[in-house]
Amino acid sequence: MPDNSSVIRPTGIRKGLTNYGDTGFALFLRKAFIKGAGYSDDALDRTIIGIANTGSGYNPCHGNAPQLIEAVKRGVMMEGGLAIDFPTISIAESFSAPTSMYLRNLMAMDTEEMIRAQPMDAVVLIGGCDKTVPAQLMGAASANVPMIQLVTGSMLTGGHRGERVGACTDCRRFWGQYRAEEIDQQEISEVNNKLVASVGTCSVMGTASTMACLGEALGIVMPGGATPPAVTSDRIRIAEESGRQAVRNARSGLTPDKILTEKAFENALRILLAIGGSTNGIIHLTGIAGRMGYEIDLEAFDRMSRETPVLVDLKPSGQHYMEDLHRAGGLQSVLRELKPQLHLDAMTVSGRTLGEELEDFPEYKQDVVRSVSNPIYPAGGIAFLKGNLAPDGAIIKQSAANAKLMEHEGRAVVFENSEDMANRIDDPDLDVNADDVLVLKNIGPIGAPGMPEAGYLPIPKKLARQGVKDMVRISDGRMSGTAAGTIVLHVTPEAALGGPLALVQNGDRIRLSVSERCIELKVSDEELATRRSNLVLPKPVDAERGYRRLFYEQMTQADKGCDFEFLRPPQMIARVPAK
Ligand code: FES
Fold it and tell me: For the segment 56-86, what is each residue's pLDDT rounded down to a tens digit?
């Protein structure tokens, strides 16, 4: 049925007409051009659903985008709407220099402005690889047009010499073995063919899986939509249903501001902790919440962490892979287990509340999602640290850290930047012991630039050969959600802005106490003041013009979600979590 529902606010093809000073002509012209592609007046009179197509030859994590678009279009047609897909930037982790995070806000701007500029009554955003989902959610939150996030889904696991493997926790494990000379060149080449068995996103609880789960916890991904693997029929059905629901939401006016509420963000923070999610999740959630005017209170988040156990037995905190979580009921199994701690009245894109969705969810006999009484880890996956080394905070993924190193004091071995580290980490003459603390400066949001995932410093080769698997490592950068170790990240303010991290010198003592939530540089205030007076900050590189200049001028720190200042609303309206 053609949709003629609104005559007051323009909808469908009449929305957002190009300004020629004559609206009648603008509509006439628009229709004339699109009719060149064979559309009829009947088609053009319908509710229009945009589909953000992030398929790209450079992005195998989105390799199923054509199938998903076809299924979304089918769903839109079944509800009597018209689907039109359009391209936006696509970002794949290993194909983005200097780092994908550098481009996230650019993709968010692209997404927001394309939603605004083109006529659509609702939009289905196809994202998947780490930065794409947060970019799309940030952009769509600002555009506030009814939207549904559709993730591409996880890749399948592969097999190597009888062992099940998947990207990218196992990529790091095998590379560590190769560096330690435990496996040879032939085996590292062989496993390179096995780690990624299909298109789709990383198969562990890395950032992509985390963001898919957070999307569902926020209510902006269809219920059950976080976990179906990329190449399964379940994934295609979710795409079809996303298309159908987008038409319904366009008609009912279910805009993101009705879904992305304080309660939704609180639910998502709880889920981030319970799934042992990527540390990047907290930056992205902060960025998305910021677009809605909510500031994430990291100390309150830490209190939440003390009462939220890790329930999901997935790598890198546990054993299984995303396809196992899907067979175990997906995120809904986690949501149901945590029901007493969630806001069940939070609205979802299905048009029903989270509580209503969970009512219908059947019980699964499974061993991937643990009960609250038998968790993988007794507290939340992430702890928030503070101290004179990180006055505005730092984080550690405690569920993937070494219990023996969580209370540790050691001598600092300092690298001034990534290049310095690459040049010296494997130097046989490097003065380093297993009890030392590796410190990497200048990989923060501004410093690198783009806060690369270089916080997972490799164990120096000479120690790796001795069997050292983990050390305390500290930086102002990020680490991949697929990585594990006793690694302190997001030290804020960052070294490139003169944060205390910039003042650390070789041989300083550093104390980490996760139980006290403390990261301390044991150097006197007087000595630090002297060092500060001699500090020379690194200069921005190639920052005279273009996106890089905008980046340097506008980039905020990790505690503000690394969004651009000018993309955040002028005033925040509340802090989340509320207590
Ligand atoms: Fe794309 Fe991991 S590299 S999801």
Answer: 999 999 999 999 999 999 999 999 999 999 9
**Using CA atoms, how far apart are residues 220 and 150, in angstroms rounded to an integer?**
9
What is the rounded CA–CA span in Å between residue 555 and residue 565?
Answer: 6
pLDDT band at 482 (very low <50, low <70, confident <90, very high): confident
Torsion of CA 503, 508, 513, 517, to 10 degrees: -10
Task: Identify the pLDDT of residue 579.
Answer: 65
Q: Which residues contact 147 (CB under 8 A, 6 or more apart)?
A: 115, 122, 123, 124, 125, 140, 220, 246, 256, 349
Q: Which residue puts its alpha carbon closest to atom 1 of ligand 1? A: 129
Amino acid at position 21, single letter: G
Cα 126 to middle of ligand 1, angstroms: 14
Question: Which whole number is the average pLDDT over 140-153?
Answer: 98
Task: Name beta bridge partners: 275.
Answer: none
Name the pTM for this structure: 0.96
- Residue 213 and residue 149 in contact, taking contact as beta carbons nearer than 8 Å: no
Q: What is the Cα–Cα distance from 34 to 370, expressed in whole angstroms? A: 53
- Residue 331 Cα, ligand 1 centroid: separation in angstroms? 19
**Is a pLDDT exceeding 50 seen at residue 1?**
no
Is the distance from CB of 442 to CB of 448 less than 8 angstroms? yes
Of ligand 1's listed atoms, the one at least distance from the Cα of 201 is: 4
For tokens 């379940």, the residue is 234
Q: What ligand 1 atom has the least distance to the C-alpha of 168?
A: 2
Tell me the pLDDT tens digit for each residue of 212-249: 999 999 999 999 999 999 999 999 999 999 999 999 99
Is residue 501 within 8 A of residue 477, CB to CB? The reply is no
Ligand 1, atom 3, lies closest to the CA of 93
Q: What is the pLDDT of residue 480?
A: 87
Write the residue with the smallest CA distance to atom 2 of ligand 1: 202
Q: Which residues of 321-347 are buried (b: 16+ CB within 10 A; e: fewer)?
A: bbbbbbebbbbbbbbbbbeebbbbebb
CB 270 within 8 A of CB 547: no
List pocket residues of ligand 1, CB cut-off 6 Å: 61, 92-94, 129-130, 201-202, 206, 208
Atom of ligand 1 minimally distant from the CA of 60:
1
Percent of the residues in the chain that have a pLDDT greater than 90, as a whole number? 94
